[in-house]
Amino acid sequence: RSENQSSNQPNTLSERFQARKFDLVCGNAWMLDLTQAILNLGFLAGAFTLGYAADRYGRLVIYLISCFGVGVTGVVVAFAPNFPVFVVFRFLQGVFGKGTWMTCYVIVTEIVGSKQRRIVGIVVQMFFTLGIIILPGIAYFIPNWQGIQLAITLPSFLFLLYYWVVPESPRWLITRKKGDKALKILRSIAKCNGKYLSPNYSEITVTDEEVSNPSFLDLVRTPQMRKCTLILMFAWFTSAVVYQGLVMRLGIIGGNLYIDFFISGVVELPAALLILLTIERFGRRLPFAGSNIVAGVACLVTAFLPEGIPWLRTTVATLGRLGITMAFEIVYLVNSELYPTTLRNFGVSLCSGLCDFGGIIAPFLLFRLAAIWLELPLIIFGVLASVCGGLVMLLPETKGIALPETVDDVEKLGSPYSYKCGRKKKTQVSSSHL
């Protein structure tokens, strides 16, 4: 595939369909990069707005609003009469999409016990992989981008039924001094599990810090929080650039796009299994660092392997995809475990905003640099992932530690007394017991 072809022609199924409708070819080819970048820009905006709102007004209400928003904006995108309308509503779809992802993950993390948290968190990521696997089939049987858009958007309206199924996070309710509602939910959960809530769990104590409204300064005010925030931001950025870059690279290296995309999704399934086998045995940091380093080395090696041995290039590239997938899934878990309850949704959303920034520049980085040398993006990916692997070793280990409730709890992480984080007297109910 020639350099001109890689830089001036649409490279994905959706882009090819959009190019036909909006005439985004030749001199307008750069606008195709914009369609992906604008979606990630929406994710970034959603991180700042809906991430804050979920900590202020509740996880569930923001999740439901976001699901409705994704559905409405997705329908408008499918029937957009011109490119400006398409771009505006694709941006809005990104905003609401961010709200669904982050609030859903935080609810799941906060509503289960500490022993189940790792398993549930990884299972959530496995459904993301399942979506990647079935997407080529949807694209194959629906031969136009509007149909694909509707097929992946309309199910969002079904999630509004969760209003009657999914409870608000008891942790969040307690931090907002809504202990009675939290206890009601806990009793309901206990009843469903064939257990009961002890009468002793009736007194609720909440510190002033636990009811304060979140702000960015809270994420960088103290040394441990500042270190965690900066490293996690870089980890999110790296995961997005490398992951999205490797996915989009499938469109410029030739081959059957449907089959290649399907295989790339199947490759991600072992990542979840490897995470489950390693994070409880070795903790969070070592698998997190190792997966980034494997991805980085694989990208660098692939860039310099001769094209005459495609089986070796494919094998090494597959290891890279596996590594960055593990890193992407672990960063969700680690991020949620390193922030206190009052800052968790806002902190995860804000840090993952760097993931969205990485997604904004990934199309331009890949397609423009590939026009210079096809393997140049791989070198950039390799350096980023390798550096990230070293940095995450500076994070505190969270294996076997209760979720922190306050900033002070986070500052104690990594100390000999970190196991006490968030714990109060057994006769009291606090979000650390949930």
In words, what does this structure look like?
It is a single chain. With 434 residues, this protein is mainly alpha-helical. It has one domain: Growth Hormone, Chain: A, CATH 1.20.1250.20. It is built from 18 helices and 2 strands. It has helices spanning 3-8, 13-22, 30-57, 59-78, 83-111, 114-141, 145-153, 170-175, 179-192, 216-220, 223-249, 257-266, 269-278, 285-304, 310-338, 341-372, 376-391, 407-412, and strands at 203-204, 428-429. The chain has a two-stranded parallel sheet. Helix 6 runs antiparallel to helix 13 (269-278), helix 14 runs antiparallel to helix 15 and helix 14 (285-304) packs antiparallel against helix 17. It is a multi-pass membrane protein. It catalyses: dopamine(out) = dopamine(in); serotonin(out) = serotonin(in); spermidine(in) = spermidine(out); L-histidyl-L-proline diketopiperazine(in) = L-histidyl-L-proline diketopiperazine(out). GO terms for molecular function: monoamine transmembrane transporter activity; neurotransmitter transmembrane transporter activity; quaternary ammonium group transmembrane transporter activity. The chain crosses the membrane at residues 34-53, 60-80, 86-108, 120-142, 148-166, 230-252, 258-279, 286-305, 311-334, 346-366, 372-395. Pfam families: Sugar_tr (PF00083).
